[in-house]
Recover the amino acids of this structure.
């Protein structure tokens, strides 16, 4: 479980716990995370997620020389929690997220994609596996990922469940690391939010490659 931080901002309570991956990842307090991406890495897409105390909570490993974009999110012990894959030939940059290291349809948890093909601002819609019609999103992300300033909302509402901000330090610039903070609100699945941050970065990177 990620450590709390006494100086974390307060947040309105959720009407009900937001559990997508597992209830064990829903803390009763604000969870501040720091996400660091290595700018230069042999396997593209390597991230480290740390808590308020600097302890490693999650890591994301990219596949080396993979034709299909595939990311595996693991816990501090290296055990796979989620597998994220990009759907081939998707105009909306559709990503599918599965439980564990599986890519079987029975293990699909949710999908995320751009709300529209052409975007000036970040707009990502997220659909849980049971939402087959995808007429209304279960979660949405809005903001400016170029500025690392995005908000995560519950469904098609104004109820915020998490937010991101850029974190600039001299060390990060010198080491060519891209670092930003993620504030996960109480009773919200922080592994789910971490996975969405990775997908956001992938979609943003592809737009600017």
């Amino acid at each position: 479980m990620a450590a709390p931080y006494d100086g974390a901002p307060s947040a309105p309570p959720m009407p009900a716990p937001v559990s997508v991956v597992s209830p064990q990842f829903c803390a009763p307090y604000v969870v501040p995370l720091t996400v660091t991406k290595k700018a230069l890495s042999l396997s593209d897409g390597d991230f480290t997620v740390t808590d308020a105390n600097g302890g490693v909570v999650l890591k994301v490993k990219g596949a080396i020389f993979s034709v299909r974009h595939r990311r595996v999110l693991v816990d501090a012990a290296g055990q796979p929690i989620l597998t994220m894959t990009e759907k081939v030939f998707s105009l909306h940059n559709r990503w599918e997220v599965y439980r564990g290291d599986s890519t079987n349809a029975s293990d699909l948890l949710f999908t995320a994609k751009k709300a529209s093909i052409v975007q000036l601002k970040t707009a990502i819609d997220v659909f849980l596996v049971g939402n087959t019609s995808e007429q209304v999103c279960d979660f949405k992300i809005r903001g400016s990922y170029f500025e690392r300033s995005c908000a995560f909302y519950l469904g098609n509402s104004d109820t915020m469940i998490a937010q991101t901000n850029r974190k600039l330090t001299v060390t990060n610039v010198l080491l060519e690391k891209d670092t930003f903070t993620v504030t996960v609100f109480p009773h919200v699945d922080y592994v789910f939010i971490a996975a969405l941050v990775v997908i956001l970065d992938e979609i943003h990177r592809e737009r600017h490659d």
About this structure: The longest helix spans residues 190-208. The two ends are 35 Å apart (CA to CA). The chain has a mean pLDDT of 82. The CA atoms of residues 136 and 156 lie 7 Å apart.
